[in-house]
Amino acid sequence: MDLSLSTRTVGDRTVVEVGGEIDVYTAPKLREQLVELVNDGSFHLVVDMEGVDFLDSTGLGVLVGGLKRVRAHEGSLRLVCNQERILKIFRTTGLTKVFPIHTSVEEAVSATD
């Protein structure tokens, strides 16, 4: 399965909608998108993972790299996910302590750090 990406602006946040599988083959596409957004001045990102079917360690690495990149500009990266199989990966790796994870884009956009 391939990876689909689309972006939109909601308030002062850039929402990246991700669909499909984030794995060793598709993760570079997500990395390029995040790097491009930060290079273009988008430092407050929301990654909507509701359409993600699979996430591996390479995908986690891309998300962590994106977080480091936005934090270097005093930014933020929030995740939207309520799929138990994906949330379990974040809990198992301890990344729930690193990423704010929300149940909807609206919740993520309106949350304050």
Structure, described:
By secondary structure, the protein is α/β, with parallel strands linked by helices. The chain has helices at 27-39, 57-71, 84-93, 105-110; strands at 3-10, 13-22, 44-55, 76-80, 101-102. It has a 5-stranded mixed sheet with strand order 1-2-3-4-5. The mean pLDDT is 96. Residues 3-112 form the STAS domain. This is Anti-sigma factor antagonist. Belongs to the anti-sigma-factor antagonist family.
Helix content: 25-40%
Low-confidence stretches: none
Amount of beta strand: 25-35%
> What separation lies between the terminal Cα atoms?
34 Å
Order of neighbouring strands in the sheet with most strands: 1-2-3-4-5
> Using DSSP, what is the number of strands?
5
Q: Which structural class is indicated by helix and strand composition? A: alpha/beta
Coarse morphology: globular
Rounded to an integer, what's the Rg over CA atoms? 13 Å
The biggest beta sheet reads: 5 strands, mixed
DSSP helical segment count: 4
Please state the average pLDDT score.
96
H and E string: EEHEHEHEH
Organism: Streptomyces endophyticus
Domain STAS: 3-112
Family: Belongs to the anti-sigma-factor antagonist family.
InterPro entries: Anti-sigma_ant, STAS_dom, STAS_dom_sf
